[in-house]
Amino acid sequence: MIGLAIAGGAYVSTADEAKFCGWLFKSTQLVNPLFALLDAEFAHRLAVTAASHGFVPREKRPDPSVLGLEIWGRKFTNPIGLAAGFDKNAEAVEGLLGMGFGFVEVGSVTPLPQEGNPKPRIFRLREHGAVINRCGFNSEGIVVVAKRLGAQHGKRKMEETSSSTSPTTSDVKQGGKAGPGILGVNLGKNKISEDATADYVQGVHTLSQYADYLVINVSSPNTPGLRKLQGRKQLKDLVKKVQAARDEMQWAEDGPPPLLVKIAPDLSKQDLEDIAAVALALRLDGLIISNTTISRPSPADTHPLAQEAGGLSGKPLFDLSTNVLREMYILTRGKIPLIGCGGVSSGEDAYKKIRSGATLVQLYTAFAYGGPALIPRIKAELAECLERDGFKSVQEAVGADFK
């Protein structure tokens, strides 16, 4: 059905490109019921394959100017990003960015390939807009991901060279290292590894040259012992060594990629205070709040699949993750950029995250349920929220609930 829609685009007059683009995104909603009939992991695999081959709509319309912002010296056309976990192996970066995300985060990537936990390991709680997963860092490994990102990086460089010498392509949209839009690379550790720091350092050495920002994932609930790295001493030691590994590399004028840490929503007040102290002391570039939860917030707790082991994502996670976001914004005194993640399914949700202290916002589960049509809708709704309350930019609204 997507193929027919795309083929139709070659036939239909493109005099009104914006209208046709909107129709193309809306037409993808016809496919969603078919994906719902498939096994969750197979459907996910099919979606990644479709995006990797360009069988997804491409956003041709410019983002509303109110959504643009600059952070870490990088320009985002909008603050809506795709969280890590969807494109674990960097197979579909170009297709995903082309759909209109302001940024896409790939991974988590582990040094060595690993299968992850036994299947089935993804469970839909559809009526609650939630998912439970216990994938366990299934990854093709650093070498494979580096080859993919390297090829894409080389292609991007060739396009930049061509555009700089050709007057007909001078209006090429400039973005990050992966092309239009910003690319984040999320780093994980192997399950059997006894030296977590060495795994993250290896990730930095191999993949940082292709990343607009890097993420240390210490918060997945599906790798034994991983969340212990969020402790004050463990986190401080880890971040210092990873920062040193990044800084010892040779960088061009734009410098090394920012380094972020992704934390869990299931932390105590003391845990959050410790993480904030480490982040401020080491001048961490940012925090992602949050990963999935091992709790089962209402109403998901009553679902027959609620007892399945793993992390829960989606709508029931929204309040929990947003409360942690608020707490961390206060603890870091607004000095560290925060990415709000967890339960976002509308522009109003994204706006609440931003007012609670998030500079950028990520989603995943809502995208898995809603498909490509969700992206332009969320951006339009967020722009309406900002304009409704008199904000001229996203950055003006960051942390507005505390000002």
Automatic annotation (TrEMBL):
<keyword id="KW-0496">Mitochondrion</keyword>
<keyword id="KW-0472">Membrane</keyword>
<dbReference type="InterPro" id="IPR005720">
    <property type="entry name" value="Dihydroorotate_DH_cat"/>
</dbReference>
<keyword id="KW-0999">Mitochondrion inner membrane</keyword>
<feature type="compositionally biased region" description="Low complexity">
    <location>
        <begin position="161"/>
        <end position="170"/>
    </location>
</feature>
<feature type="domain" description="Dihydroorotate dehydrogenase catalytic">
    <location>
        <begin position="67"/>
        <end position="386"/>
    </location>
</feature>
<comment type="similarity">
    <text>Belongs to the dihydroorotate dehydrogenase family. Type 2 subfamily.</text>
</comment>
<feature type="region of interest" description="Disordered">
    <location>
        <begin position="153"/>
        <end position="181"/>
    </location>
</feature>
<comment type="pathway">
    <text>Pyrimidine metabolism; UMP biosynthesis via de novo pathway; orotate from (S)-dihydroorotate (quinone route): step 1/1.</text>
</comment>
<keyword id="KW-0812">Transmembrane</keyword>
<dbReference type="GO" id="GO:0044205">
    <property type="term" value="P:'de novo' UMP biosynthetic process"/>
</dbReference>
<dbReference type="InterPro" id="IPR005719">
    <property type="entry name" value="Dihydroorotate_DH_2"/>
</dbReference>
<dbReference type="GO" id="GO:0006207">
    <property type="term" value="P:'de novo' pyrimidine nucleobase biosynthetic process"/>
</dbReference>
<dbReference type="GO" id="GO:0005743">
    <property type="term" value="C:mitochondrial inner membrane"/>
</dbReference>
<keyword id="KW-0288">FMN</keyword>
<keyword id="KW-0285">Flavoprotein</keyword>
<dbReference type="Pfam" id="PF01180">
    <property type="entry name" value="DHO_dh"/>
</dbReference>
<protein>
    <recommendedName>
        <fullName>Dihydroorotate dehydrogenase (quinone), mitochondrial</fullName>
        <ecNumber>1.3.5.2</ecNumber>
    </recommendedName>
</protein>
<keyword id="KW-0560">Oxidoreductase</keyword>
<dbReference type="InterPro" id="IPR050074">
    <property type="entry name" value="DHO_dehydrogenase"/>
</dbReference>
<dbReference type="InterPro" id="IPR013785">
    <property type="entry name" value="Aldolase_TIM"/>
</dbReference>
<dbReference type="GO" id="GO:0106430">
    <property type="term" value="F:dihydroorotate dehydrogenase (quinone) activity"/>
</dbReference>
<keyword id="KW-0809">Transit peptide</keyword>
<keyword id="KW-1133">Transmembrane helix</keyword>
<dbReference type="InterPro" id="IPR001295">
    <property type="entry name" value="Dihydroorotate_DH_CS"/>
</dbReference>
